[in-house]
Structures are given as C-alpha cells and as structure tokens.
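Here is a protein:
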Amino acid sequence: MNSFYNVLKQASLEVPQKVAFLFTKSGTELDESVTYSELELRARAVSNRLIAEGTLQDRVILLCHPGIDFIVGYFACLRAGMIAVPCFPPTNAPLIDKLHLICQNAKPGHVLTTSSVLDTLKMQQSNLESPVALLPTDQQRTLTKINDILKLRLIVIDDSKDNDLDDKGNGVKLDDVAFLQYTSGSTQQPKGVMVTHRNLFANMQIITRECRMCQDDFSVYWLPPYHDMGLIGGILAPVFCRYTSLLMNPNSFLKYPLRWLKLLSDYKGTISSVPNFAYDYCVDRIGDDQLSELDLRGWRLAACGAEPIHTETLERFYEKFKVCGFHKNFYGPCYGMAEVVLFVSIYHQEFNHGVYQLDSASLARNQIIESVPGQIAKSLITVGIPSSDYRIEIVNPADNSICPELTVGEIWVTGESVALGYWNFPEETDRIFHAYLNTGEGPFLRTGDYGFFKDGMLFITGRMKEVIIINGHNYYPQDIELKIETSIPTLRLGSTIAFGTERNNKEELVIIAGVKLLDNDSQEQLINQIQTVVNTHFKLTVSEIKLVNSEAIKKTTSGKKRRIIIKNKYEKNEL
C-alpha cells in the first residue's frame, strides 16, 4: 500500500457493514453513524472533487467540527494525494489569528469545510462589515484575515454528491506528505509537522502491536481531531484495526465529564486515551452519588499522555472509580509527540512496578537516586520500554554524548515514524530533526524532553525549555505547580504556572495563580501559603507571586498549559 487511504478501502471490502464511527455532540444521544463502506464512498466522492480542481501535494485546509464530516474530508485528502491540514474552526479572534498564520505558512490550494462552519465564518464577516475606518484596529485586522480565508477555493463536504465515484485515485507515493500536524506550540507561530504515508504506516504498526489492538476493540474519544492523540488514536487506529470508535464533542466532556465515562460504561468501551488533566477533572467534577451509573470493567486500556503524567493523579482517579470496576492495571502511561506521528512508548503492565520514588534534591542536580524515608521524594511512573522500531538515546545537550543509565539528558529518537520536518521552516527542521551524536551517528530527532533510562524503561522528567535553573539546580515547573495545587485547597488543579525569569543577572522563580475574586486579606493569605509550600518542599524563595483571573491561565485545546506564552506576557507586563 502506498497511501494510508487504502487502509480504509481495504476495510470497506473486508467489513463493509461494520460501523466505523459513531458521533455524539451532547454525549448522550447519537447524532450520526457511518459504516466502513459508507465512509469510503463518501470520502471517494469528495476526493474526486479535489482531484478535479487541484494537483498532487496541494495543501488543503480541513476546517470541520469534530465528527464524521471531518473524517470524510481527511480520507478524501489522502486519496487525492493532497496534504490535509486539520484546523480548528475559528469562533473568535485568537482562533482566526491562528488559522490565518497556518494559511500563510501552508499556502493552501483549497479549504475543505462544511456548510455550518462556512455560515459561521460568513456571519463573523458580516458582523464586522461596517465602514472599515470606523472599526477598532484589532477588528479591522480580524476582518481582513476572515476575508483572506474566504477568498481561498472552498469545497463544502456536505454538498458533495455520490454521482462521481470513479475509483481512479491520484498516484500517491509512500513518501508523499499525507498531512501537516500543526503543533499548538508555546509561541505565536504554529509549525506544521510533515507526516508522510510511510510515517503513518510505521507508527500505526507500533501502536497496534504495543497496545494489543484488535478488531474486537471499541474506543471512546472526546479529544479534538486536530491534535495527534485525537486524530491518530481516535480515528486512524480504529480504521487500521477495523474496530468501532465512538467520538464525542470535546465541549461536552468539559461541561459534563460524567458523559465520557458513561459512554465507556454503556458501550463497554475497551480503549480511551486522554491527557493527565482529564483524570483529575473527572475526580473533581463527578459526584460520589453518580458512581452507581458506571461500570468500567471493560475498559482495558486507559492511556495517559500528551502532557506530564502525575502518579498522584492516577492514584486519585483509581481510588474514586475502583468501585465502578476500574483497575490500576488499565492505565497505560505513554510517551509521544506529533514529530513521530504520535507514539514512542507505553507502559501497560503491573502499575505499581512502574512507579519510582526519586530523591528530589538529587534530581535537581540531574542525578537519579532512589529516595529513602525522610527525604523529599518525587514520584515518577515509567512510559515503558520503547519499541525496538526506534533507537532512543539519552543525550547530554552540552556535548551530544550519550548519557549512562540513571542520568538525566535530552531524549533523542530515530526510526521510520520520525516525520520529515516542519513545513517551510528549514532552519528549525535542521536543528530539531537532523541532530548528530558526537560519534557522528544520526540523524536523530531532538525531542526537547528531559528523561532517563532505568532497567531499560524510559522515564520523562520535563521539557528542557521550561526547566527553571536556580543556583545551578534544575527544577521542573509541573512539580512546583502540582505541589502548590495539592497543598492549598482553595486552588484548583491546573490553576498555577511556574517559570523562571532573569533579574539582576540571575534566574528567579515566579508563580502565577489563577483565582476567583478574593478580598485583600484572602489574597495575602494565599500568597503566604504559596510561598510556604514552595519553601518547605523545594527550599526555594518565590521572587513574585501574581494572582490573576483564572481565565488568564491559558491552555491549548488539548489541555496543556501554555507556560511560555504566559511567561512572555508577564515579562511584557501584559497579564
């Protein structure tokens, strides 16, 4: 097979009447379903329109809400040999800004969308269309960007008829780019990871083998399809293995997290993958009186990835939902990134055997020493033994030498899943994707993550660019944030940001805490509590603690904290 589209075509021949996808917007009632045969026919109809109007390797902005139209559009692009560019339909000025930046970088030939998304864009355009000179400057810019987007060639998926179903295809090659996965990133400029059909096949084979996926599985996903875990885990893996996937609107999960678990319970779902924050979110937002509605015994793989994994979070979720039949061994802490399509490794064995208690003081010096009673410990869970399809090294970024076991360094990866690079970012591509060891071996992908090996198992300690270095010691922001949030009851999990900033030629610690309205006495008390927690557990003094509206703690659409953006706003005095 040269095109990943052929995976869908083969499924439509082998299991034509099997339901491929179900979709629920509310999380309670099903809105739509599609069999493998129906999905292939719909994708082929849209694909033929693309082939008639475009050329091989044209970029196509895929602008659809989560649901079956998105899947139809994605596979249509693959069949046409064009490069799918999944994008979040913009509903506000920041999302319009991001879409416009992506269009400037990708230079698309078409926008593949739905009538509802198009109507929303035109409504936003209409709301701003008054004499331009009378509009505030920022609204003028937004209107210009909407106009630019609507000037592109538009194809409406739900207008595509099934009258042209010629099975001609478009001469796709295995090393052609299949799609651009734009990373949410920590800067204002998103970068599109160039994923080829070969990359997709390679990563899918690793995922399905390591996660033991089969045709009898049933997955339930609410993650947005614009992100690697939602797209690969929730959409492409089911097609690759011929099982059914139930997709839920992400907003429904955020409003009613119980509905995600209820779908897993009602449909006897076996697989669902979410970031760490989602497990905390369920513990905090689902009442004990609602647990009797859930039977989670069928959930065999509860993967956790896409952001730092806290063993405390996994323990909390287990303690709450074990009465529903949930077991710790269902967990699958995993590691990956868009630059390798999705997946590097997973730990899906005896949970307690994968947990390692480290001495926090030694970790600050990049040394891995098991903690003893009386020491301040950091609990880490492994993300497993990486697949033999990869070569993974822990590298000292100072001299590009390989670190010995139990030494923290940057994680470098090479293998067939590693993408080509970033679209139209040649310097970044060379720096990130073409790294060489001091022995001359390479090229490797520099992940930007710190980690170490213990007994062949990989542990992740944090992001290099977010590490706070004070007096020569390394401190990880997620450790500081978690300790603050779990020690002070008035703070929600995910409500704080820790970062280092340079003052007087040295790095100092700053904490931003998102809170609801507090009187002056309560603010002062909270600031003192934060200072005490940080000093007690990390022996650090916080240079400044800033309390902001909780909405100022920006996150990506998959729930990751945008630490670098918030740090930049702080340093520009824009918070």
